[in-house]
Design goal:
The complex is a heterodimer.
Chain A lengths: L6 H18 L6 H24 L9 E9 L4 E7 L3 H18 L8 H20 L3 H10 L1 H11 L4 H29 L6 H6 L4 H18 L8 H8 L2 H26 L1 H6 L1 H20 L4 H22 L2 H32 L10 H4 L1 H14 L6 H16 L1 H8 L1 H16 L7 H4 L6 H19 L2 H5 L2 H12 L4
Chain B lengths: L1 H53 L4 E11 L2 E9 L1 H24 L6 H20 L3 H19 L6 H32 L4 H7 L7 E5 L2 E4 H16 L8 H4 L5 H10 L4 H8 L1 H4 L3 H24 L3 H21 L3 H28 L17 H15 L5 H15 L5 H27 L7 H5 L6 H16 L4 H6 L15 H8 L3 H8 L3 H19 L3 H8 L1 H8 L4 H49 L6 H20 L1
Antiparallel strand pairs in B: 1-2, 3-4
Classes of the chains: A mainly alpha, B mainly alpha.
Chain lengths: 494, 646
């Protein structure tokens, strides 16, 4: 609270202002200018987010870097921002991914460069807004606004079936979040005129309305995560999206759903969460096992990674609803780790797609002969995706399995099948794409990764290994917040 | 001393990073110089530590805190005692020899630097595994050695068989790790910590607790934990029914077959169970399971070795069988004998593998023994070192394998838990089979008339010194390592590291009868294993050196049995049909029916269709003709009036 400088506003609005500046460069004659402004904007966006970590007080569970101004006095809507141990790591992840996406599209995007780059910068700011809003209406505005840039990115720069995918993505997520708005209006009435999320946390609500509220939130968040059975928009969206779109979708946008559960469902309706925990656990475990099996049979690399994302996000929701420290902290680590790993996996597929214009596994084979450096990076990320200890992919899964066994042995049993299925679908794909003799003349002509691509993959590799080898600093910042959440969960609000 | 502990794993890791990332800049020679020097540093540190441990010092402490969650601290740390110090010596010595050997074996390979990087990385991982003081780091090392094994089996990545074998190895190991991780999860749940010492202290308190994982069937928690942990060991140490990956792993270059798939990595499971002896001792059910699994592996894998013609595959099946011996020893609570056999086996099996590799180089990468023969006079050093290793393997008195194997057989004989009769039969019968397949290899390869083509024969010569030096160096412990049986197995060497309940303690009873190594050798002449072993060697000589026409006749007259052994009991076929095929079919059904038809086809696109159909229906009334609207309004007014009036 001692920090008076409006840091969070800067983190939100700086990328958006830069994004608008990028739009202003106009058509593709100024493409190079647009690229450089985007790079500067996104890098600054990351740099200004660093004080969030260095100035963060790990001993408190209350909101930090708070800003609170009146927005609509008539309805008691405020421009109220703040972060805690749950939102802070997610904001940092988002600010880090944005420059990576900008650089990833550097030479690849040749049409409407300014709009493409601008859309990512604006989205980065909006997502920071989602993670730091403490006012329900402000949250809702940012939440819905985040759909627009992604809708455009898929719809304009996407593949041949982009319109279907973009509309499916938009409708799915929009319909999901409408009920959330109704939930907010209900809470506004119950709290006698407050849109403050922190007020909602303290509100006592009977069980039946709690269950209705839970379901309203569930639809919004489950679609975003996405949980089984509302996941089918994700493979389509990923397949059609350009590489940068897929990276942001997997690394950032899916986390909005996970974040929603921690910020709204668990603390606002803890009794309903407890009441419905078994259902949530069942849905999560279906995601892990069922989706893992489906991923195995995919012939399209992006679809395979999309399905593997759903399976990995199943660990996130599983961890949340096990409701103990290992589970929730493990789920948080899994979210951050998945941001790096899935982002890296989509970048790797993008590297291949840029060269051969195919995502089909069958079109590849023996890539290692021509691209050894790429193959080494891809190996690392594939192993991380398979949850190898020493990479970030292991930490979250390990903690969630440790947590699950305490509730029920079979939960842990089903969750741990990811050890086999995760390795099977990832490494089988790797084998068919990378290993073997050179499969065809197209592969024969492949060039190894450029310096630009090397830097991107190296940055992600650094984080994947760091979190795997030394996750302590990452989990440390979450402790107070999650301890407080657990205490909160164990006290009934009826 | 604590800095020295760090040096043991970190020196090879540094070597691996240098050779892996900068190998192409520093070149081939410097890559092997750097990695060998750093593994040598690791060996020297291990020796100093070993000396320190012999003087009675031990260490148990943390290096850094990996994670804190809830009330649990997950640490990375070292436990240095007699058990880990012994393993460190074995790992670093064999690793150093394999590094040197690789200079010769991989001389012309374009992936030279990469290979050195991998084997150094393996040394690091294996050290982390054996030096660990907690389950988490154990699991880290456990999976890391699995990763390096995966990379090395698929080292020649353009060969379809190699990249099939490495995927298979990784996945089968993952099945084991699946059980292992669940075991670790239960340990954490019941003990609240993953630190070995704290877990072992609390273990006796858990002996009464039971758990119902299937409603109605009650298990002792400790039994469940031990069996789950042992499933991990079955994967890594290739015990039936998770043994299928090890023979295929021979697709990798021979030096790693020696280092990883014989001497060190595959013994990780044995090491782990010995390390967990305070847990396993508490569950007789788990010990019986181990005994039976070990017995099956020992005998049935040895039988396969008898019909193999690929020189590396004979040694591979022999490894499976020897691992079975170690497992049986664990089940009989003879942990020290298991570790002792692990050590002697590491040396004699490394010699057999490296010798086989030497033969393969001389034969221009021909591995079929039917095309060899008479190599003795061309390759005397290879022959004599391999001959010594074969004697050790067959358990001829005086050589290292004799002492360790005899201790195991005697311990099983004395043990008294369910399943011990079966295990005793298996280990005894296998003595004959072991001698038979080992000397079959020796006679087919080195004796008799040469069966290779003239071109190959003209170029036959002994391998260069970088290949023969490791053979000679490793031949020394192949002879002599067994002589330390007194203090190591029967003495107090492992008393702080291994815990045995008094009622299971066959080893101490054996120790009471132990009168020194010469007494043991003399005693051997009056026991069954010695005569079985001699009979095996004689049979091998008779069939493969004297009357070489008989094996062909036996093969035709025992057709079905031969085919069964040759097809490895059809287990591979069964697994690929049941597990690989079954999983893929299930995945396809879930995808095509669950996702595409039901969720997307019915719900998602169905909803969209209902909306568009309703819209199409409603649209018909929006004709745009004013008289349609007027007419509708008149009907409406008429209806309203009617309702209102009545």
């Amino acid at each position: 609270m001692s920090f008076e400088f409006p840091l969070l506003s800067l983190i939100i609005w700086l990328p958006i202002v830069f994004g608008i500046a990028v739009f202003a460069t106009g058509n593709d004659t100024n493409a190079q200018l647009a690229r450089w402004i985007s790079l500067i904007g996104s890098t600054l966006g990351f740099l200004v987010a660093i004080p969030l970590y260095s100035g963060f007080d790990i001993t408190t569970s209350s909101m930090q870097f708070v800003e609170n101004y009146v927005w609509f006095e008539r309805f008691n809507v405020n421009y109220h921002l703040g972060v805690d141990g749950i939102s802070m790591p997610l904001i940092l992840l988002n600010c880090l991914i944005t420059p990576i996406v900008v650089v990833a599209g550097w030479e690849v995007i040749k049409q409407r460069v300014s709009q493409y780059m601008g859309a990512f910068l604006v989205m980065s700011g909006i997502v920071n807004g989602v993670f730091s809003s403490l006012d329900a209406i402000l949250f809702y505005v940012f939440w819905e606004a985040s759909l627009i840039p992604m809708f455009l990115i898929i719809g304009i720069w996407g593949g041949p079936n982009r319109v279907y995918a973009a509309i499916k993505f938009f409708l799915y997520t929009l319909l999901g979040s409408l009920l959330m708005l109704i939930a907010f209006i209900y809470l506004y009435k119950t709290s006698e005129g407050s849109f403050s999320i922190e007020d909602y946390h303290k509100l006592s609500i009977p069980l039946t309305p709690q269950i209705f509220l839970f379901i309203a939130f569930l639809l919004a968040f489950a679609v975003k995560v996405p949980m089984w059975p509302v996941h089918t928009w994700l493979p389509d969206a990923h397949v059609e999206a350009p590489t940068g779109g897929s990276v942001v979708l997997a690394a950032i946008l899916l986390k909005l759903g996970g974040y929603g559960f921690l910020r709204f469902s668990l603390p606002i309706v803890p009794d309903a969460s407890l009441y419905l925990a078994d259902m949530m656990i069942a849905l999560s475990l279906i995601a892990v096992v069922y989706i893992g099996l489906i991923a195995l049979m995919q012939a399209d690399m992006k679809k395979l990674i999309a399905y593997s994302s759903v399976a990995h996000m199943g660990f996130v929701t599983l961890g949340f609803f096990l409701m103990n420290a290992y589970g929730i902290e493990g789920a948080m680590v899994q979210m951050i780790s998945h941001g790096f790993i899935s982002g890296a996996m989509f970048l790797c597929v993008g590297v291949l797609y840029d060269r051969l214009h195919s995502r089909q596994i069958a079109d590849y084979g023996g890539v290692v002969n021509k691209m050894p450096v790429f193959a080494a990076f891809f190996m690392l990320f594939a192993m991380a995706n398979a949850g190898l200890p020493g990479t970030s992919g292991f930490v979250g899964e390990f903690m969630v399995i440790m947590s699950a066994v305490q509730i029920n042995f079979w939960y842990a049993f089903l969750a741990a099948t990811t050890l086999i299925f995760g390795a099977a679908y990832t490494l089988w794909m790797y084998k068919r794409v990378v290993f073997g003799a050179v499969a065809n003349s197209a592969v024969e002509g492949l060039q190894d990764i450029s310096k630009r691509e090397f830097i991107l993959l190296a940055i992600l590799a650094f984080f994947v290994l760091w979190i795997g080898i030394y996750p302590f600093p990452l989990v440390e910042v979450m402790h107070s917040t999650i301890d407080h959440l657990l205490i909160h969960l164990s006290t009934s609000k009826l | 001393m604590q800095k020295l502990y760090l040096l043991v794993p970190l020196a090879p890791l540094l070597g691996s990073i240098i050779a892996g990332l900068f190998g192409r800049y520093i070149g081939r020679t410097w890559s092997h110089r750097v990695t060998i020097a750093l593994v040598f540093v690791s060996l020297m540190s291990s020796i100093v530590i070993f000396w320190d441990v012999l003087e009675g010092n031990s260490y148990n402490g943390s290096v850094y805190t990996w994670l804190v969650s809830g009330d649990t601290r997950f640490e990375i740390g070292f436990l240095i005692d007699h058990l880990s110090a012994t393993m460190m010596i074995v790992v670093s010595l064999v690793s150093l020899m394999v590094h040197i050997y690789t200079i010769g074996y991989m001389h012309d390979d374009p992936g030279y630097q990469r290979f050195f990087s991998y084997i150094s990385l393996f040394t690091f991982s294996m050290m982390m595994l054996v030096m660990s003081n907690n389950f988490l780091q154990l699991f880290f090392g456990w999976e890391a050695v699995g990763l390096v094994s995966y990379l090395l089996i698929g080292f020649w990545y353009t060969r379809p068989t190699a990249i099939y074998a490495n995927l298979k190895a990784f996945l089968v190991n993952r099945v084991g790790d699946f059980g292992f991780l669940l075991g670790i999860a239960l340990v954490l749940m019941h003990f609240g910590t993953l630190d070995y010492t704290l877990v072992f202290e609390q273990a006796p308190g858990l002996i009464e607790e039971s758990i119902e994982i299937i409603p109605g069937i009650s298990w002792l928690v400790i039994t469940l934990i031990c069996i789950l942990l042992f499933i991990g060991a079955m994967g890594k140490s290739a015990q039936f029914p998770l043994h299928v990956w090890l023979p295929d792993s021979m697709e990798g270059p021979t030096p790693i077959s020696a280092l990883i798939h014989a001497a060190t990595m595959v013994t990780a499971g044995i090491f782990m169970v010995a390390r967990m002896s305070p847990l396993f001792e508490l569950s007789e059910v788990a010990l019986s399971t181990i005994l039976v699994v070990g017995g099956i592996t020992t005998l049935f894998m040895a039988l396969i070795a008898v019909v193999q013609t690929d020189i590396k595959r004979v040694v591979a099946y022999s490894t499976l069988s020897q691992l079975g011996y170690m497992t049986v020893a664990l089940g009989a609570s003879a942990y020290s004998a298991a570790i002792f056999h692990l050590m002697t086996h590491a040396f004699f099996k490394a010699v057999l593998f490296l010798g086989a590799g030497s033969v393969i180089i001389a034969m221009h990468h021909e591995q079929n023994m039917q095309k060899m023969g008479g190599l003795k006079k061309y390759m005397p050093i290879t022959y004599w070192t391999m001959f010594i290793a074969a004697l050790a393997s067959a358990g001829v008195p005086g050589f290292s394998g004799f002492f360790s194997k005899d201790a195991i057989i005697e311990a099983v004989h004395f043990a008294d838990i369910p399943g011990v009769g079966f295990a005793y039969f298996c280990v005894l019968a296998t003595v004959f089979v072991t001698a038979l397949y080992t000397f079959r290899l020796i006679f087919m390869t080195f004796h008799g008339s040469p069966r290779m083509d003239d071109h190959t024969r003209e170029h036959l010569h002994e391998s260069p010194w970088v290949v023969t030096l490791p053979l000679v160096v490793l031949a020394i412990p192949t002879i002599a390592a067994g002589w330390f049986i007194g203090p190591v197995v029967f003495g107090e060497y492992f008393k702080d590291a291994i815990y045995v309940l008094p009622q299971h303690d066959a080893i101490t009873r054996l120790g009471a009868e132990f009168t020194g190594i010469f007494g043991m050798i003399l005693h051997a002449f009056s026991t069954a294993p010695f005569w079985l072993s001699i009979a095996g060697i004689f049979t091998a000589w008779y069939l493969y050196n004297y009357r070489t026409d008989i094996p062909g006749k036996v093969k035709t007259s025992c057709g079905p049995i031969y085919t069964l052994l040759d097809r490895k009991y059809y287990i591979d076929e069964l697994y690929s049909w049941l597990f690989a095929g079954g999983t893929r079919s299930l995945g396809t059904v879930l995808w095509k029916v669950g996702d595409v038809k039901i969720i997307d086809g019915f719900f998602v696109n169905g909803t969209a269709k209902v909306v568009s159909l309703t819209a199409a229906l409603v649209r018909r009334y929006q004709t745009g003709y004013i008289y349609h609207y007027a007419f509708t309004m008149i009907i409406g007014i008429f209806v309203i009036l009617t309702v209102w009036l009545y």
